[in-house]
């Protein structure tokens, strides 16, 4: 079992802008950490630096306190699952799984036993004699997993392993990987651009943006109390609504105007707004944090520009003060485009961000 | 009332039918190629498209092949300006066993082919790897390495003739300046060196194409495979032997087969440089077949010799496939 520390981890090509920029992370033993972010955010490069496939420009990576910067991939004893699976096309499933063990000059009987054990744990026993090109995408993915598991590595690295699978397989393989982590309790680092994978698999998520870690926290904290605009906007689908509003004050306290309606920001956490009085801030409200309200009770009355029916809920697109807002409501009433509906905002759940630093001024407190 | 209506309806229908038939007849009369083609089934369309190619293949390959087979079973003689064919069965083939020049020619053909193919593939692989891994000089190689292959065979032959020249050839010049030889040598005229000189020139000429194919093959090996094997603990050597070579095996097979075929058939280079001499020391089956067929007008025997070359090619191909291509 290994813990991993990154200190000032940096990758730059030809001394130009850093792809990975002074990343500090502490991954604990047996943790499942997901690196998530848009393409080009440096998540894959970070993973490849752990694997030893990419040179580290600056900073260190340490396993259990021992710096591994200069170790070869082989000496690091890591296993990696690639997006393309990277199975050896001319080798059978058996040989693919056994390749590393053979490289280690392990006893043949022992190899045979390990390969069969691993294969049966993933339901691959019938396929051992086949070549990768005779396997389906899901089967190839399991062979790639088997190849990683069989060698009992210090760390498992996953580079977008589910991206090439269709939607159904993706969900079931995701569950497989989660179970695998439950069973093996090994340190795993997983790269994806898919926030659902990040939220469902991770013990902690590192949201990356432009080579930096925007937030490193449990999935719940990442979703419920994002540290900054980027994390708030990246996690969640449909996206969090961002409304640019001026903070005003009356006898009852701070308020903002929406479609001309004053909305009072009541509660202790809004007292921080003092220094933002008469300034513009960004209000973040997730689509599910609206409730339908009758005319008099509503905070806003908006016109339905468009809606999407999604089974148990409807996604409603409306406009407030020339800004689009997206609202997610349970379907209990029939709507028509052009209807006016009243909404209430769940004030406990709103986030307020500083538009310049993009950091959260006050965020919802997560449990 | 009902009856009247029924009759009227029938009349209208009949009229319509006649009109329809009229249209159909008109359509039939006007032969419209485009419509015909549009209505063809997918496989018929495919056959139509392939037809020109097939026609060329039949005319240019199958016909000469069969004609040569026919010739190899006959004795061809000129009689009063006309060709006379006499059927002799497999006599032309049996004749080879009696021909005292054949053993030497056969051995030389195989020597020339084997050394040239092995040299071509080995050097081609070296060049491909150099370019693929961007080693020192890769940029220069990339721009220049196809040049020998692009040269016409005869031009290539003439160029080597000058370079090997015993009077003022550059090879003599360089080797004597470097102190490898005492005086100028007649590379193409001496029995001991002629074959070596030919093989060298042939390798020079064939290597680029082999290198090109192998380079293309190397570039199809996914980067992920290199990385996966690196993570699996393979060093550069294992990576090459266990991952890269097996992955590009089918292309290596193609390179070996085509190079062997082409080398067995090399004609222009040998013809320009030595014409099989001195003293048969560079005589290959191919040149011998030509000599028989077109110089001695022993057309039947020449054709039989040519067929033997085909057999040897088949044998080589069979061996390669057994060695390399068990599953492909």
Can you give me a brief rundown of this structure?
By secondary structure, chain A is an alpha+beta fold. Chain A has helices spanning 43-51, 73-76, 93-103, 108-121, 137-150, 167-184, 195-201, 219-224, 229-234; strands at residues 4-12, 18-27, 32-36, 58-63, 66-67, 78-81, 155-159, 187-192, 204-209, 212-217, 241-246, 248-250, 253-258, 261-264, 280-285, 290-292, 300-309, 313-320, 323-330, 340-345, 351-353, 360-362. The relative contact order of chain A is 0.12.
**Count of β-strands of chain A:** 22
Give helix and strand order of chain B, one letter per element, not per position: HHHEEHHHHHHHHHHHHH
- Classify the secondary structure makeup of chain A into a structural class: alpha+beta
Helical content of chain A stands at 10-25%
Question: Which properties best describe this structure?
Answer:
heterodimer; A: 367 residues; alpha+beta; six-stranded mixed beta sheet; five-stranded antiparallel beta sheet; 24% helix; elongated; B: 328 residues; mainly alpha; two-stranded antiparallel sheet; extended
Task: Please provide a written account of the structure.
The complex is a heterodimer of chains A (367) and B (328). Chain A has 367 residues and is of the alpha+beta class. Helix content of chain A is 24%, strand content 34%. In chain A, the strands form five sheets. A six-stranded mixed sheet of chain A has the order 6-7-8-3-9-10, sandwiched between helices. In chain A, helix 3 runs parallel beside helix 5 (137-150) and helix 4 (108-121) packs across helix 5 (137-150). The longest helix of chain A has 18 residues, at 167-184. Chain A starts with a strand and ends in a 5-residue tail after the last strand. By secondary structure, chain B is mainly α. Helix content of chain B is 75%, strand content 4%. Chain B is built from 16 helices and two strands. A two-stranded antiparallel ribbon of chain B has the order 1-2. In chain B, a hairpin with a 2-residue loop joins strand 1 (74-79) and strand 2. In chain B, helix 4 (91-98) packs across helix 16 (299-324), helix 5 runs antiparallel to helix 13 (249-264) and helix 13 runs antiparallel to helix 16 (299-324). Chain B is extended. Chain B starts with a helix and ends with a helix. The mean pLDDT of chain B is 83. The chains are: A alpha+beta (367), B mainly alpha (328). The A-B interface holds A 51-53, 72-74, 78-80, 82-84, 86-91, 99-100, 103-104, 147, 151 and B 222, 224-225, 227-234, 238, 242-243, 246-247, 249.
């Amino acid at each position: 079992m290994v813990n991993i520390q990154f200190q000032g981890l940096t990758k730059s090509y030809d001394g130009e802008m850093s792809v990975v920029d002074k990343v500090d992370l502490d991954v604990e033993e047996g943790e499942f950490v997901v690196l998530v972010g848009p393409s080009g955010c440096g998540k894959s490069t970070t993973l490849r630096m752990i694997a030893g496939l990419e040179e580290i420009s600056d900073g260190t990576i340490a396993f259990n306190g021992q710096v591994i910067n200069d170790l070869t991939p082989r000496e690091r004893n890591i296993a990696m699952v690639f997006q393309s699976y990277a199975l050896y096309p001319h080798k059978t499933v058996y040989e693919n799984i056994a390749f590393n063990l053979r490289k280690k000059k392990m006893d043949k009987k022992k190899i045979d036993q390990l390969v069969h054990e691993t294969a049966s744990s993933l339901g691959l026993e019938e396929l051992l004699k086949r070549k990768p090109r005779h396997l389906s995408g899901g089967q190839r993915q399991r062979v790639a997993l088997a190849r990683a598991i069989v060698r009992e590595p210090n760390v498992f690295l996953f580079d977008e392993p589910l991206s090439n699978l269709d939607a159904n397989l993706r969900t079931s393989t995701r569950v497989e990987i989660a179970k695998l982590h439950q069973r093996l309790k090994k340190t795993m680092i997983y790269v994806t651009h898919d926030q659902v994978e990040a939220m469902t698999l991770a013990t902690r998520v590192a949201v990356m943006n432009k080579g930096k870690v925007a937030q490193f926290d449990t999935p719940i904290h990442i979703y419920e109390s994002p540290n900054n605009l980027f994390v708030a906007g990246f996690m969640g689908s449909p996206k969090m609504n961002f409304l640019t509003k001026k903070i005003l004050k009356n006898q009852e306290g701070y308020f903002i105007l929406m479609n001309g309606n004053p909305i009072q920001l009541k509660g202790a956490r809004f007292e921080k707004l003092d220094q933002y009085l008469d300034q513009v801030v960004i209000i973040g409200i997730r689509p599910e944090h609206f409730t339908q309200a009758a005319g008099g009770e509503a905070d806003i009355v908006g016109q339905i520009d468009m809606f999407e029916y999604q089974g148990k809920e409807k996604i409603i697109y409306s406009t407030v003060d020339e800004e689009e807002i997206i609202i997610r409501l349970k379907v209990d009433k029939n709507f028509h485009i052009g209807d006016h509906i009243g909404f209430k905002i769940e004030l406990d759940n709103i986030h307020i961000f500083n538009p310049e630093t993009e950091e959260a001024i006050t965020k919802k407190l997560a449990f | 009332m009902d009856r009247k209506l029924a009759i009227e309806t029938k009349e209208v229908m009949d009229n319509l039918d006649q009109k329809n038939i009229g249209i159909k007849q008109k359509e039939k009369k006007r032969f419209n190629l485009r419509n015909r083609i549009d209505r063809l089934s997918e496989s018929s369309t495919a056959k139509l498209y392939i037809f020109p190619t097939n026609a060329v293949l039949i005319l240019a390959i199958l016909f000469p092949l069969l004609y040569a087979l026919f010739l190899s079973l006959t004795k061809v003689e000129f009689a009063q300006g006309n060709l006379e064919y006499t059927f002799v069965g497999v006599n032309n083939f049996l004749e080879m066993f009696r021909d005292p020049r054949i053993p030497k020619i056969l051995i030389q053909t195989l020597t020339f082919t084997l050394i040239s193919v092995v040299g071509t593939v080995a050097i081609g692989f070296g060049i491909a790897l150099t370019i693929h891994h961007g080693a020192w000089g890769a940029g220069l190689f990339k721009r220049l390495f196809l040049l020998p292959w692009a040269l016409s065979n005869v031009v290539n032959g003439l160029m080597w003739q000058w370079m090997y020249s015993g009077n003022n050839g550059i090879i003599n010049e360089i080797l004597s300046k470097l102190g490898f030889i005492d005086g100028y040598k007649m590379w193409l005229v001496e029995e001991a060196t002629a074959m070596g000189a030919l093989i060298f020139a042939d390798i020079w000429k064939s290597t680029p194409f082999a290198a090109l194919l192998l380079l293309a093959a190397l570039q199809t090996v996914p980067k992920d495979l290199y990385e996966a094997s690196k993570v699996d603990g393979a060093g550069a050597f294992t990576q090459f032997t266990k991952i890269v070579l097996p992955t590009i095996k089918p292309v290596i097979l193609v390179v070996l087969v085509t190079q062997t075929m082409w080398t067995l058939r090399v004609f222009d280079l040998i013809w320009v440089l030595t014409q099989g001499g001195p003293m048969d020391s560079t005589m290959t089956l191919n040149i011998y077949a030509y000599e028989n067929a077109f110089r001695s007008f022993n057309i039947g025997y020449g054709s039989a010799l040519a067929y033997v070359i085909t057999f040897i090619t088949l044998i080589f191909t069979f061996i390669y496939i057994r060695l390399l291509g068990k599953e492909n």
